[in-house]
Known about the structure:
Structural class: alpha/beta
Number of helices: 18
Number of domains: 3
Radius of gyration: 23 Å
CATH topology of the largest domain: Rossmann fold
Strand order of the largest sheet: 6-7-8-3-9-10
Amino acid sequence: MLSAKAVSKTFPGVRALDEVDFTARAGEVHALIGENGAGKSTLIKVLTGVYAPDTGELTYNGTPARFTTPLDAQHAGISTIYQEVNLVPLMSVARNLFLGREPRGRLGLIDFSRMHRDAEEALRDLGVTVDVRRPLRELGVGAQQMVALARAASVDARVVVMDEPTSSLEPREVRTLFGVIRTLRERGIAVIYVSHRLDELYEICDTVTVLRDGKVVHNGALADLDRLRLVALMLGREIETVRKEGLTNFTGTHDTETEPVLVAENLTVSHHLHDVSVTIRPGEVVGLGGLLGSGRSETAKAIAGALPTDSGRVTIAGERIRTGSTPAAIRAGISLLPEDRKAEGIVPGLSVRENIALAALPRLSRFGLVDERRIDELVDTFIRRLRIKASSPHQKVGELSGGNQQKVLLARWLAMHPKVLLLDEPTRGIDIGAKAEVQSLIDELAEQGLGVLLISSDTEELIEGSDRVVVLKDGETVAELTGPEVTEQNLLRAIATTEPA
Length: 501
């Protein structure tokens, strides 16, 4: 259905694609994988009309193709679901679902009754029941992702591109998504599937193309590759090295002090949290477990002052701080890495240098004048320390891969020398290599005495990376697992319980 032949694409200082061949066939789910920066997103944007290739050619449905805009690709029958929900937050769910193709009545006016009815039916097919008249921004990230999926599935597409579609979904929604993908495959639609989650790839994909440094290093049937070989191809390492080091980079338990650095008591936020308490000691990694919507992100935001609380208190090193105030939390030594790095973290139009220095500007200034030399030293230090891949510190952060954007955010908050670091899905949507680097950094920070709160939907990451795990359900604490109790079985049992702790 869609193929690229010898496609190359170069940006200033970076050759993103180098003579890439890729073919998506009708009735096939084709995995496109590689580390962040390998060229996956660039290839998708070339295939869908966002970028024009420098050299090479595209073929669609057997004939040469050149899409000058994403709208051209969509009209041709190519539908794309991006990792970051790419819809209009202020518009209703129904308007988002039918944006640009609204049903109209006899006078050419939008038929809202029909649009609402069709939107409800499309979402019901995916197991989602919401008021389609509500603004999209009122839904959680997972529900927004399902709206994006419903939109893609309702378009008469011949090719569907899915870029990390499960990154914000809970297990039930993932099963629904896989059911939709199987239906698309049965209808003869080509599906291009991008994901860093190996379990998903082996469950749903037929073939695989592996990119590394902008080049194709493998193409073939996924069933012919075992997991270690696949990881080794992505990382460019020997299988024995991968087998020895494993797929996570956590080292084990940490030495912690007895007195907590953070105590959050009885945090209550109407309709979100009820009497949630968390303590973190210096050098300790405390995991926050639970399903999507259980209150994990809300707990982190309440501690960081980004979500006003109805009641509860937060103390840092024995000193109570004002809740509902982000500046007060930052001054006290609390830093939050948010779940949605695009909407709540990076400033895409600013450079890597500006994004890293953003929070630290007040202490890098004297009498209102910024010390450029100190900024350069700070930025260079963190680019080296976190191995941030950018053509220069002045490259726009929006041009970086997801994993490198995440590292820039980490650098910004580490530059503040925090006492407590709240990490909300720190490895979401980044590749295995970048994930291992972030996990290793979390261990390193804990060993240096930093208190860490780790929120992750990756059960393996949460279990291996945490000293203790506080489990939430429906905004309440249902369990706290410590030491040998921190196992996948105990975590799942706690999530399934109906009684609060």
